[in-house]
Design a protein that fits this description.
The protein is α/β, with parallel strands linked by helices. Helices cover 35% and strands 19% of the residues. Bound molecules: S-adenosyl-L-homocysteine. Residues 119, 121-122, 159, 163, 194-196, 217, 259, 261, 290, 292-293, 295, 336-337 line the site of S-adenosyl-L-homocysteine.
Length: 349
C-alpha cells in the first residue's frame, strides 16, 4: 500500500480488509479498521472520529485524504427531484440527482467527469472525458446527498455522467463499498448499472456474481441507425451487444432493462418497434421508453406521446413488456442526458 506523500491514501476508497492492512502497517489493532470504515461511510472527517486515538488521527491526516465535497449548487424541482453539483478534490465537479418515487428514494450518480462515448443525443459527452471518478468519489455522492436531503437512499442508478463500464474497476469497488454491511449497507439488488454497450465490460460483469441490475442503452434496433446515433456501436455492433445482454440475463437470472430513448422521425415508428421486438425475442428483459430530453444546440426532438403509446402497443402485441417513463426534474435540467452541460457552462462564464 502506498503511504508516501506524493500518493496519499484515499481513505474513502478502501474496503475494511484493506483498512486492516493499513492499520497493521501502522501498528494498530485490527478493529480500528471497522471504526474508520463506518465513520467514513457516515461522512465524518478525521477530526470527528472520536473513538480513535489522537495520534492515529494525526498520522492519518499526514498520509491520507478524506475529501468532503462541497455542494456547489443545489436545485430542487417542482416534483421534489434534487440535483446536486458536488466539488471534487481537484477542482472538477460532478452531478447527482435524487428522485423520489412512491416506492422510495433513488439516487442517480455519475461515474466519470465527462464521457468519451460520443452519443449524438447526450449532453454529458459534449466536452469529452476529463477523468474517471475513484470509488470513493462515487461513494461521496451517496453519502452527502443522503446527509443533505435527510433521505434514506433506497436505490442507486449508475446513470449520471459517464460510462460506468469505461471505469470498470472503480465501479466494482464502489459497489462493494456502498453495499458493505459495515458501511451504508445498500442492497446490491437495489443498484442498477447502465451502459451504452461496452461489450467486454458486460461480459466481465456477468462473471462477477453481483446481483445488480443491468440496463442497456439500446435506442435503435439495427446497426445502421445505432451506429449513426452511438459511435460505440461501430466497435461493438448490436449482435455482439445482444449476445452479451442475453448471457448476462442467463447467468444472473436477472431481467435486463432495455433503455430506448424516443426521437421523433428517427427511431419511433411501428416498424422500429417490430424490429426491436424481434431483437429481444425470448430474452428476459423489459423495455423502458424514454422521451428524448432536448439538448441545447442539437436538433433532435422527442417522439410525441401518441407515437410512444403506439410503439409500446406494437411491442406488447409482439410479447415484449415496456413502460413509458415519466420525466422527473426536467425543469431543473436534471433529466437524462442533460447533466453537466449547465454546470460546465457556469464554469466558463
Ligand atoms: N453511459 C451510460 C450511463 C449514462 S446515460 C449509458 O449510456 O447507459 C443514462 C441514460 O440516459 C442512457 O440511457 C442515455 O442513453 C440516456 N440519455 C442520454 N441523453 C439523453 C437525452 N437527451 N434524452 C433522454 N435520454 C438520454
Amino acid at each position: 500500500m502506498q503511504t508516501n506523500q506524493e500518493a496519499p491514501v484515499d481513505l474513502r476508497s478502501l474496503l475494511p480488509e484493506e483498512l486492516k492492512t493499513l492499520m497493521k502497517e501502522l501498528g494498530q489493532p485490527a478493529f480500528r479498521a471497522e471504526q474508520i470504515f463506518s465513520w467514513c461511510a457516515r461522512g465524518a472527517g478525521l477530526e470527528e472520529m472520536s473513538n480513535l486515538p489522537k495520534d492515529l488521527r494525526q498520522r492519518l491526516a499526514e498520509m491520507a485524504v478524506l475529501h468532503k465535497p462541497e455542494i456547489l449548487k443545489k436545485q430542487v424541482s417542482r416534483d421534489g427531484t434534487i440535483k446536486y453539483l458536488f466539488s471534487l478534490r481537484d477542482g472538477n465537479a460532478v452531478e447527482s440527482v435524487l428522485m423520489r418515487y412512491r416506492h422510495g428514494t433513488s439516487l442517480c450518480i455519475s461515474s466519470q467527469v465527462g464521457c468519451r462515448m460520443g452519443c449524438t443525443f447526450c449532453a454529458s459527452t459534449i466536452g469529452g472525458l476529463v477523468r474517471s471518478l475513484t470509488a470513493g468519489e462515487m461513494l461521496e455522492q451517496v453519502i452527502f446527498a443522503g446527509l443533505d436531503s435527510g433521505e434514506r437512499i433506497d436505490s442507486l442508478v449508475l446513470m449520471g455522467i459517464g460510462e460506468p463500464l469505461d471505469n470498470y474497476d472503480n465501479v466494482i469497488r464502489f459497489i462493494q463499498l456502498v453495499s458493505h454491511e459495515k458501511g451504508l449497507n445498500l442492497g446490491k439488488r437495489h443498484i442498477s448499472l447502465s451502459t451504452c454497450g461496452v461489450v467486454p465490460g458486460i461480459e466481465r460483469l456477468a462473471g462477477e456474481g453481483l446481483p445488480i441490475t443491468l440496463s442497456i442503452s439500446l435506442h435503435a434496433p439495427n446497426n445502421a441507425l445505432r451506429s449513426a446515433m452511438m459511435p460505440v456501436n461501430r466497435t461493438y455492433p448490436i449482435e455482439q451487444l445482444m449476445r452479451a445482454a442475453r448471457r448476462f440475463a442467463k447467468e444472473t437470472g436477472r431481467k435486463v432493462y432495455i433503455e430506448y430513448t424516443m426521437i421523433a422521425g428517427q427511431n419511433d415508428s411501428p416498424a422500429h418497434a417490430r424490429e426491436l421486438a424481434a431483437l429481444l425475442r425470448g430474452m428476459l428483459c423489459h423495455v423502458n421508453l424514454i422521451p428524448l430530453n432536448p439538448v441545447e444546440g442539437k436538433r433532435q426532438k422527442s417522439a410525441d406521446t401518441s407515437a410512444m403509446a403506439r410503439f409500446a402497443e406494437v411491442l406488447k402485441d409482439c410479447g415484449v413488456t415496456s413502460t413509458v417513463r415519466r420525466k422527473l426534474g426536467d425543469d431543473i435540467d436534471a433529466a437524462c442526458g442533460q447533466l453537466r452541460r449547465s454546470s460546465t457552462k457556469k464554469e466558463t462564464l
